[in-house]
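One thing: could you explain this record?
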Amino acid sequence: METRHLQTPSIIGLFDRLADGVYTLAARVLGDRHLAEDVVQETFLTALRKLGTWRGDGSIEGWIYRIGYRQSIAQLRRRRDLPADPIELLDRADSAPSPEHHVLRAELATRIDAAIGELNSTLRAAFVLRDVEGLSTGDVAAALDLSESAVKMRLNRARKSLRAKLEDYL
């Protein structure tokens, strides 16, 4: 009789696939790139230690993002009294953009970063995971330990707030 075992993915493969996303989430939640790097390390160390406890009832990506989110919130609690640095957006490559385009894009990126940074941490986390990292609503719900309807509500509030803050640029 053949037995089937739940195969756990390689932590190195998971790191290669998800580290950038966990970093982006942490940087957005914390507003500090250096602390975000620490969160990425802690996230994957925790995942490595607890990989055997992953039950396989949700996606492993959602599980890792949940660990990263919880690490970010723990880091926030430890440093509530410190001011947040502005978050930098990645510059997306365009084909031969003009200097004016670069200036306008940088200004818009700064405004978007500031608007995202002004969201409370719960709205910001849902927004970053869904709209920046592209996770499904179900995976965001799993990562944040919420129902899908709660995630949708947070996304709606975040998007509405961002739309209002960026009204002049839309």
About this structure: Residues 11-30 form the longest helix (20 residues). Confidence is low (pLDDT under 50) at residues 1-6, 81-96. The helical segments are 11-30, 33-50, 60-78, 99-118, 121-132, 137-144, 148-165. The radius of gyration is 18 Å.
